[in-house]
What does this fold into?
Amino acid sequence: MSEAVRLQSPLVGFQLDARADAGVILRERAFCSHLNLRGEQSDPAFAAAIKQVLGLEVPFTPNTTTSAGDQTLYWLGPDEWLLVAAPEQAATLEAALRKALAGQFASVVDISGGQTVVELRGGNARDVLAKGCPLDLHPRAFGVGQCAQSHLAKCPLLLRPLADGFEVVVRRSFSDYFFSWIEDAAQEYGFSVVS
Amino acid sequence: MSAQAKRLDRGGRIDRATPVNFTFNGKTYQGCAGDTVASALLANGVHLLARSWKYHRPRGVIAAGAEEPNALLQLETGAYAVPNARATQIELYEDLKASSVNAWPSVEFDAMAINGWFARMIPAGFYYKTFMWPKSFWTKHYEHYIRKAAGFGVAPVDHDPNRYEKTNAHCDVLVVGAGPAGLAAALAAGRSGARVILADEQAEMGGSLLASTQTIDGQPAAEWVSAALAELATLPEVRVLPRATVYGYLDHNFLTIAERLNDHLPLRARSANRERLWRVRAKRVVLATGAHERPLVFGNNDLPGVMLAGAVSTYTNRYAVRLGDKAVVFTNNDSAYQSALDLHAAGVNVVAVVDPRSNPQGELPLAARAAGIRIIDASVVTEARGGKRISGVQVMGLTANGEVGGSAQALDCDLLAISGGWSPVIHLSSQSCAKAIWSDEKACFLPGKPVQAEVSVGACAGEFTLNAALAGGLAAGAQAAQLADFETGVPATPEVRDPLEQPMLALWRVPSPAKPGRGSKAFIDFQNDVGVSDIRLAAREGYQSIEHTKRYTALGFGTDQGKLGNINGMAVLAEALAQTLPETGTTTFRPNYTPVTFGTIAGRDLGELFDPIRKTALHGWHVEHGAKFEDVGQWKRPWYYPRPGEDMHAAVNRECLAARNGVALMDASTLGKVDIQGEDAAEFLNLIYTNAWKKLGIGMARYGLMLKEDGMIFDDGVTVRLAENHFVMTTTTGGAARVMTWLERWLQTEWPHMKVRLTSVTDHWATIAVVGPKSREVVSRVCPDIDFSKEAFPFMALREGTAAGVAARVVRISFSGELSYEINVNANAARQVWDAVMAAGAEFDITPYGTETMHVLRAEKGFIIVGQDTDGSVTPQDCGMGWAIKKTGDFIGRRSFSRPDTARSDRKQLVGLLTSDPNVVLPEGAQLVKNPNAPIPNPMEGHVSSSYWSANCGRSIAMALVKDGFKRMGETLHAPLGDGRVVSATICKPVFIDPEGAHQNV
It folds into this structure.
């Protein structure tokens, strides 16, 4: 997209509020490139094509990720992955992946406008997620390198532990509800939104 | 009486330096920090706290914990009111206000106590027998009277100002109860590094140790508790939850805990969360829930001043209350002798211990005798006497064959401590589906063989000594950690010495010297006023199952759930039926262990957070421009955009006229969108939709109808072909998720051979519909790189280009019958494109419109809305959409067309309706009849499915499903309405504008 385009993230309208003492600190990584990948794990050409374009191994172990630089591949299912990359790369990556996967039973779909990446940090990041998410988020059970699709209250989401918090991929239409829910649940810890 | 006249000068765990003022039944009292309302009232000499449920007999505190059946109070008023709070569990706070429930006009003088005089006339089942006839009297008279007479507390009617939360938690070991066994288990498990949650319902952890006079490792028990808690606090993976009741043990080691966060604070000091519901998944569970003491059953055993012996020790030792001046202890076991000793040590005159056993020689009886306490052995208390407080007891000898005999002796007393043995608190074990096992030796039900990953330890497992509780707790905690894959050993058991005890003598009901049916009432279930005579009556009347007896007599009902009375009740039933206790069995223990507030269960699932409100990328624009919103599924969609001074009718008329005469635009982003790729994509659509897809040209779009297997319409929408093996399907807004699931289900379970990939792109694409004769001029300006000429961009075609500089897919389709384009762009750029369309359309007065106008426009053309004009019982043929069904080839639903009921030609069919009076708009849902004056039941011919005022037609229009409707064109039907009006309307074809389709053919 051209420079002139004004973009609005799903969390447009929420005010930044940096507070030093907040137990929950939210940061949106807006406008990332999100590509949904479907392919055959049993076909070695699939992983090879992905590696050729991204330089990333496809995570075949359920609920794991592989990362390099600003690109992360998330395992979503036995034949489904999500690629999150830096902004403004979706069209290029989509074309390159399509080309590399040509002839395979595979698909590449740009869904960059449909979801956004949110990071939750702070001393109570895990506590606030636990209020709505039934997964065991303890680092012993859910550590760096893993990911899981779950929900926060009634909002579907994709979770990934970070070294100092959690990354959440949330659908655009649910992001308003997600934000309101986190803001409410974080009341007792103090809540801050940073850029 | 002076403040806290019955407070002991020393001892106890209350803080005498912090007095707390409170009000009970309008009178002000003072207690101490650390008191419960029960202990504070007892410290003020108040024993009469309640009136019983049915007979309105005076009742006092009998227990010291969750098992209290009598002392139910109405706590606070207005929005903070809590009905039926147990005085034994309410922590005292400044300015607390409580009152008795179930007493009118007052607990001291209760007019309903007259019921007690008629007790013999209102036995168990009285209501069922007496209030049966006449039927109409039930709701009007009987129920009203019974409710007023029998109610407990009053639920608050005001909005609850408290905040409640829920949270999920996972642990390796959940320990329930922080008495000696639970603390030991938590220590042993916690030291391994396992994630441990220790929950206890009390404010202070320690359970029975807080009132104990025993030593552990040579130190007072309470000091061992402090040390244990201090160590637990150093273990980072151990979470200690006081004031937290584990109230439910569900499947897969899922347990629920209600944690009370601020009920112990003065009202004005309460903030944040009142309660938190913990939803816990535990790898292992250690139940250390203790035991409840059983009452003994004899005449007038419910008088205030009759208390469980263990509770007597608790009030004496832990709360420093002098419960009476002259006490009698009546027990069938050794443990209550400790209460006699505790009373004696506190300076209370212990008149006697009455024991049905002959010459008890256990260590505690010997110690009591050594302290100079008189023991009346081989005897029982046959009756208590007194009014609002016990004043004495009648004691008789017990013969070898279990009868009472000899001369009665009367003892004066103002306190009677009773103990009938102990019942392990097996509620959670039982909830986990372990079947309780009766132990003759211990005369109680013990937890059954675990069904889930749990173990019971300490008193709840029938191990009543301190040594067994500590040793069992340590072993169970260590083993639970090991089973959760932590390496650890069993710590050494601290040194304790338990007194040597002699066996108890099971005594389910004290034999009565009175003739059957005479004598004073002996209560089994205090809360529900169930006596021995009621259970015997139930047995005589044929109630043999304990479950039936429970429901007939109300035994074990209410907030009490049989904690005190059930075992005695079962034993009395067993005796009446001449069978054993295990043959009689227990009733089922169900969650909740104690009552849980609705607020806790609701948590934050309230208001805006109750259900997701899904918003489109353009939501902010709609808000800024005054849109009224409509809920469509979870989405908020603009309904209409009123200008200043406009009502909905005026706004919708304006929007409708703009769309047909100028240009209008709508946010259609909520439509479900599914990206479909793969070499079998076209064949897949062939099977999913009723029409043919293989020959659809690339860059072209087609409308599709989706059916369920039963041949009924399920969803519809337009699908475009982007490439040979690449399609994008649109679905209805509300149907998006279920259509996606439906497609995946067929692919994964029925057609796994098909090479098709599906991806939801609903949220990625923002869709802007530009509608009306001027729409071509507007979109041409917004998308300069697309040729919108009639020839280059025909109806049902797709073109890719840019819109306001943003990559766009533009489809020429129409849900209004007008020339119309839908611009699809990445939702992040939706606002920019929408603004550009608005700007390009300004000179044509481009008009945003909402769902109401969309509905009117499509109804003017007779286009269906799935879910409005269909209801799961409508076929394509019923809608006159046979044209959408291919002649050959299979698809989901086709086979059902040959069902006789689906194939018949006189089904309800979709037709148009024009009211005789063009100004009358039929209500949707109105039923249609041939003759409005026919007698009821008047045969119904069909119903109105869609109905609007059409500004474009200058009259009302409607669509209806009418039996055999296609053949009834021109017939007039009638809609009798709820307000008495009858609206006449004539059946017509459901196309009211441009039947030849000229508008979009431009």
